[in-house]
Amino acid sequence: MGAIQQLSAARGYTLGRIKGVSEDAWDAQPEGFSNTIRWNVGHIYVTVESLLSQAIQTYEKSHSDWPEFFAPGSSPTSWQSAPPTTEELVGALVEQGKQLSQVMESSPVQALESPLSIGKFITLETVDDVLQFLAWHEGIHSGLINGLARVIK
Questions:
Q1: What is the 3-state secondary structure (H, E, C) of 71-93?
Q2: Contacts of 81 (CB under 8 A, 6+ apart)
Q3: Could you give the percent of the chain with pLDDT greater than 70?
Q4: I need a labelling partner for 39 at 20 to 30 A (CA). Which of 6, 22, 30, 33 fits?
Q5: Range of the domain at 120
Q6: Residue 71: which CATH number?
Q7: How far is CA 57 from CA 62, 72, 110, 142, in A?
């Protein structure tokens, strides 16, 4: 299974986890969780946009105002305005998946102009590296979404 298929599988899992979650559950933050379902969904989206726009010249980033809500280190407790709606987030995830497939068809796996560093320990040197990291990252946050949904029920 290639990296693009791994990311596509992770996205399918994410969409499956959020399907049927009540609107109230999207903003609940149970004890022991540092964020909400809404934050995790938005964070997945924003992370993909950020890394792919750095890795692939032809990738056009959307929703440039969303990182203020969902960037690493952000929190629903510090939001100064209303975050994107559930419908906006789900729609954005679906469209992002389609855009990613289209971009990857026209952009062969290649070395990055400049490696991307994530923290001290991860360096991504190819588009394939970026896709693998994003699949792993989405899986982590989808697991958190699944846990949140189970606790909130």
A1: CCCCCHHHCCCCCCCHHHHHHHH
A2: none
A3: 97
A4: 6
A5: 3-152
A6: 1.20.120.450
A7: 14, 23, 11, 27
